[in-house]
Amino acid sequence: MNKDLRRLLQEVAAGSVAPGTAFDRIVNKTSDLEFARVDLDRPHRTGFPEAIYCPGKTPDQIAHIAEALASAGQTVLATKADEKAFESVKALLPDAEFNELARTVVVRASDTPTLAGQVLVLTGGTSDLPVAEEAAITAQTYGADVKRLWDVGVAGVHRLLARQNEIDEATVLIAVAGMEGALPSVVSGLADVPVIAVPTSVGYGASFNGLAALLAMLNSCAPGVSVVNIDNGFGAGFMATQICRIATQSK
Amino acid sequence: MNKDLRRLLQEVAAGSVAPGTAFDRIVNKTSDLEFARVDLDRPHRTGFPEAIYCPGKTPDQIAHIAEALASAGQTVLATKADEKAFESVKALLPDAEFNELARTVVVRASDTPTLAGQVLVLTGGTSDLPVAEEAAITAQTYGADVKRLWDVGVAGVHRLLARQNEIDEATVLIAVAGMEGALPSVVSGLADVPVIAVPTSVGYGASFNGLAALLAMLNSCAPGVSVVNIDNGFGAGFMATQICRIATQSK
Amino acid sequence: MNKDLRRLLQEVAAGSVAPGTAFDRIVNKTSDLEFARVDLDRPHRTGFPEAIYCPGKTPDQIAHIAEALASAGQTVLATKADEKAFESVKALLPDAEFNELARTVVVRASDTPTLAGQVLVLTGGTSDLPVAEEAAITAQTYGADVKRLWDVGVAGVHRLLARQNEIDEATVLIAVAGMEGALPSVVSGLADVPVIAVPTSVGYGASFNGLAALLAMLNSCAPGVSVVNIDNGFGAGFMATQICRIATQSK
Amino acid sequence: MNKDLRRLLQEVAAGSVAPGTAFDRIVNKTSDLEFARVDLDRPHRTGFPEAIYCPGKTPDQIAHIAEALASAGQTVLATKADEKAFESVKALLPDAEFNELARTVVVRASDTPTLAGQVLVLTGGTSDLPVAEEAAITAQTYGADVKRLWDVGVAGVHRLLARQNEIDEATVLIAVAGMEGALPSVVSGLADVPVIAVPTSVGYGASFNGLAALLAMLNSCAPGVSVVNIDNGFGAGFMATQICRIATQSK
Amino acid sequence: MNKDLRRLLQEVAAGSVAPGTAFDRIVNKTSDLEFARVDLDRPHRTGFPEAIYCPGKTPDQIAHIAEALASAGQTVLATKADEKAFESVKALLPDAEFNELARTVVVRASDTPTLAGQVLVLTGGTSDLPVAEEAAITAQTYGADVKRLWDVGVAGVHRLLARQNEIDEATVLIAVAGMEGALPSVVSGLADVPVIAVPTSVGYGASFNGLAALLAMLNSCAPGVSVVNIDNGFGAGFMATQICRIATQSK
Amino acid sequence: MNKDLRRLLQEVAAGSVAPGTAFDRIVNKTSDLEFARVDLDRPHRTGFPEAIYCPGKTPDQIAHIAEALASAGQTVLATKADEKAFESVKALLPDAEFNELARTVVVRASDTPTLAGQVLVLTGGTSDLPVAEEAAITAQTYGADVKRLWDVGVAGVHRLLARQNEIDEATVLIAVAGMEGALPSVVSGLADVPVIAVPTSVGYGASFNGLAALLAMLNSCAPGVSVVNIDNGFGAGFMATQICRIATQSK
Amino acid sequence: MNKDLRRLLQEVAAGSVAPGTAFDRIVNKTSDLEFARVDLDRPHRTGFPEAIYCPGKTPDQIAHIAEALASAGQTVLATKADEKAFESVKALLPDAEFNELARTVVVRASDTPTLAGQVLVLTGGTSDLPVAEEAAITAQTYGADVKRLWDVGVAGVHRLLARQNEIDEATVLIAVAGMEGALPSVVSGLADVPVIAVPTSVGYGASFNGLAALLAMLNSCAPGVSVVNIDNGFGAGFMATQICRIATQSK
Amino acid sequence: MNKDLRRLLQEVAAGSVAPGTAFDRIVNKTSDLEFARVDLDRPHRTGFPEAIYCPGKTPDQIAHIAEALASAGQTVLATKADEKAFESVKALLPDAEFNELARTVVVRASDTPTLAGQVLVLTGGTSDLPVAEEAAITAQTYGADVKRLWDVGVAGVHRLLARQNEIDEATVLIAVAGMEGALPSVVSGLADVPVIAVPTSVGYGASFNGLAALLAMLNSCAPGVSVVNIDNGFGAGFMATQICRIATQSK
After folding, report:
1. What ipTM was estimated for this complex?
2. B205 close to A (CB below 8 A)
């Protein structure tokens, strides 16, 4: 970005760009809806468009943010969405797709790149599927190649060991688990790639809505594990995609 | 106990026991020191003598409680003891033994039974040794046969799988771990006997002094795991011994 | 298990088992549904089949997991189940039984053994019944002999003392209590067998959904108490059954 | 107090009291040291003088507050005091007495009344003594008749039942316990008088410095229990004395 | 109670009571319903009958416990009751009265004594009324004289000071407040009688369902305050009644 | 206020005010409804009338408190109100206005002053709007000039930097944010006026209903930030108005 | 700042400023020490220089940051400083002053303005003095007029009411309190200016190192209260000064 | 690994490997010290040798584990080490290097590869240096190219924007911050590579030893952030190195 700034200042000095225009370029790159300031510059800065976190937004607001992104040629990804949000988006963007399990609404930009590497998503149990699927959909939407490995929790560690092959082939792992959240620790001890741990709110009592799994994952005795928020499949999928982009760019 | 009461009342009716004596037997079976009421009836009720939890007690108080127990022919086991407590006990009971790692002081009663079965104590890491040793010493003191298996944490799950033989031979397992506390879940999936989980305060940051391990163990996705207090090696050793006694009595 | 591995390798060396077959036996013993990897090897490893924790699973998923277990001749036990889950299972397995209070669905394998010993389940109050009943049903399903003793909370400690006989006869106790969770401490002081403590979410305000009872039980001043998750009647019943199996095997 | 105000206003109207004097009486009744505003009016309002909580105050500050109270003929009670605080007070008030166990410094006013009724202080274990003794000293200092009953914790409930006589004779009970804090619940079920529960920080691990005992006591299933802060023997002794004063005044 | 036991043993010795009868009297004084063990001996031990905490009990269970108490001539007080519980009780006990605000169902025993003294219930705000009313109804039901003083929170401390007269006349105060829970501290500084503090779950955000008020009350800088559980109006009313009984007995 | 008291006492001394009248003036300035004690003196003491916090109050209670305030010529502001509360108020006060987003009901007093300065309300995201709007409405209702700047969260810090002009012109800033609550820290580093931080409950998982944002704001490394309760737009708007009044009075 | 940017771009366009120089002005205004990046631009942006938070920094680091600030003609204020930090600063800046109670090191810039208005700092008790003094020193250092009012806690609310005059004269109040933290609520009900609440870690047990006071202050039922971190006297003093600057600028 | 297993079984079948040898290879690859089971197979499985977490281990234990690793030609990295641990290691391994700030002891294997890409470590403030340096040393030790950027906290966001160049050049970012922990959110909005967030325990009061920063980072509104344990510089450095290895392998 600094390079852009230097060039812009030189253009101002050269008279090829007016000061007022330069000012606008420096301070102004958002699409202002009444209720939101869509950050259309984000792909430039961070490589990915802004995603829409649905809770607390009306279906109408979601649809208009989605439209602002799509108009700018950017991929739309709305998370924690419900049926109503989807219908509202679909009315404006007919290509929108809803994944009921993952609770995502997606309109993929046509120029989405195909990334190198492979993301392997593992879950501790069947109840962790919605969060795991959110991670998988996120990574796929942004161009990554994703494999799924469901229900390989640590109570039957042989189920996991039996899939060493898939672990060996992955570029990055996403380990999704609730309850005691031990999956990332065990997985990380079997893998030579980064493990992104996603605690889920699956459990009851002293699970405290995912706190137990979160703390366990943060305290993993196996290094190479980093953690995202409880139930934050999107965040894990996003980070995995960034890592795949490194693999892509390094080629 | 109710059988005792029925018999006692019949003896009162028969005149062979005076009412005052009966009253005393029903309500009174403790050794009153000035500062403590040593529960000498506990072996009768619970099968084991009272143990001495040292913190908050002066060396002098510890020594006198120890003496009251020893005088009644009962085993002395003082936990979380330091050097001073040991010396104070040793002055009164020269047979007292101090285990510096486990922080225990022991004077074993001569009639301690030898129990059937085997207790296997496992630790996640080297830093968990003091708590694990407290568990092991406790079980040994009360008559159990104890095996130790140190440093088989889940980050290298093959270290644990390599010891399936020892797991298969145990009557009851004590799994001691700090940090993410995942050991009991993995162990329980490999064993067909009860696993007593002991969270330790080993760790830092979001371990919150053992809270992370405690919550993880309570949320174990593998059944057959129950949990004692953080760093409570004594409690785990005690319960394991009770289970060995069931094995003994069932013979 | 290691014994099996040694034998298998000898058979490979002897040519009686092909390497590919050996490979499959070592790494592969699960029934793969689309959404779940049912661990059919668990009875071999842990002595009991996998149970089904219903929350977060659809009725359909529950039914298919149940069917996979039943097809393998294993007992089906689904916990925290509702009416819909039951109906879905019953459509596939007509022998399924629903316990509305305990919220369990059960299809018992015909070869379930009858275990030695006796499990005594105690509750602090009437509101603890659903959790206590889940514990009782679990133990019965797996072959244990179970007695129930309801509403003997510590506010009227004489109600508990009056039942010393039942306590004396038990092989293992399950003490279920909410609110201040004091029942296991008092019970353990009256018993010479292990006490499995189950905190319940019964209470309000500073009970924090069972946290108060959980912490109290973990801090029991009476040894011989270990604790399972809040409302985890299943876990307690399971562990009690393991202990009864020790009594059975030691005969 | 309103009676005083009405009378004062009438005196102003009658000219027997000047407005300025009345103003002072209404708004001004404190002894201003540089660092503290000693509330000498408190006995008038609340029946007892202000007590001195020592932590965070210098020995010098403590001594000067003590002197201000003593000069006004009021009883001095300093809590959580150490040797230095005591020496500093003694230099100004030679009658000051230090109780090392309870960590109190006391200079009793000569006109302290003798109160009716009896306060019975019970502890769960020997480690709870310092807090229990603070409660006992507080009640005695303010004129109550106090009995002590140490080490009657719930792990040996017979020790407590054996002392029903003493419980029956008390006007108010103070139950002091750490760990699982179950003593007040059991005691309250045996008594027909109020039980003031004092959680102590005795314990480790999931005791969380007394939090477990505090929560347990707040959730007591036996009514008639109210709770003061962790380790707050002073507060319990104070409230017990107020109750004894009701017994005294009702005579 | 010990007096009863001594006398009973003497009667056994004298032959006037058979051993079996004595045994029953010692260990057996409860009314056993299928799901509950109603503690009919409680008035004898604690001066008040058992109350019924409704949540977690079916309307049918509540009604049968109520009937067991009423049949024994004891007062029925059911708390946190709803319309359905009331109707179920009323079907068996037509005199039952429902207080919708306090959520209590009451059937008062005809021989309830009239107690000396006065209970003053204060609230911080209008939203605290349900809990305050539960306290007031409880005390009235058990025979106390109760006054109510609503909405005198500390944001307008003059509202409270204006009622010093009522404070001066009370035997015991119940201060009910949510949010910052400061009312008991201020009230206790104006009163020379015990203050029972009841935190309520009124508030939002960092109130954490009453935790803020609870902690504030436990840390009151004014002594003479003790605290019951969040929203536990019943507990406060019960304890206030016990204090009034002391005033009554001391007459 | 002391000035009023001095003058009043002089009038009593002069005979121009009767003692009884003086007494009433000193202790009595509230409007007593059956369920509430409306503090009509508050504008005199604090400059603003009492506001109505709706949760826990019936629509009827809300309407009568509103009427008592309006009758005294004071502005009515009811917060966290719903449709029903609004209708109930409107039936008594037809000028009442409902803001559905902010959940406020307002009846503005005709003599509300126009304050100097400007309040700038910023939000991190669209989901924070309801709380931000509550802050804005509150400040406007009490006479402040309010500007809104929505959706300038720190993930796109350029959106915020682009609005430095608006920040420079404000007298006081209200920064409303959920999730990681970083907005106030960044804003405060760009502003030379006070920042009132409002954490919102927007977020999920380890947001713990706004706790994460609250803690972050309290730990702001940028000084000049102070914090109100989670979701407490009203409190922030109120304090901002007080600061504008300082600007007004200093003119 | 945007005005500066517009002007700068016009100067670049006019050729009076080189692009490289403009670039540096836009992105570069810090003093880079090896271990710190002193933000010398802060007075320009926020009106006050950067302060030095000492914990975690070596005396040497503190001294060099102080020197960097002083060299730029800016006021030095180091907080939570100890003797060693002071000496290290004094060696480089001989005018440095240490306040032992407040733990501040100050070197005041000669051009510090004198601000209008008055800051009144109140404490609940003597133990709160260090934090209160930190607030007072901070405000004085930055040019505010500060008054102190110590030990007016709510247990003797008359002490506070007696000082209504001082409250009436203040422009902004800082209320410092530990334990139950009720002071700000009561004060705010007596004042028509903003109250900045500072919870202190004074207290024990369920104070949880100031958490109780913090939560209470956040839940204040009196509006006009905002809160800074526990023991953060600096933050409160800083914000109070900002408010006084508004009073100054509005003149 | 499965490939290894298949090949091994074929060798057994072919008779070129004895069954016993195969057994050993499958289950046994650790170096057994008396107190530890050093996992020498870890580089094979995870690409990096086991690191030594020092707390809870004696200097002697640390030294022997270090020696076991070095003997196997593996890099030694001991974290949270003190002077004594270093000296103990140095006695056995004279090449050991101690970094006092980072508290690391390192003996680098001669064949450590040089990795592609660049790790940029940023800190919020000077007090975060020890943790940041631990991250940097870890990454360097394992072969990564590391750049440091200290003291760019969000209170002066321009300091960070001024370094956009360095951010643009990095392959992966490590953002280390205490207090409100906002740095990763802001950084992630400026970067198109993964951000590993490290909360530190820097702060006081409501920082709760790093909990505030941890929660903030987990709730980052900017995606592409994942989090390790509080003060876990090692974990962050390790994961960053894994990502650099992906960049290396993809070349």
Report:
1. 0.87
2. yes
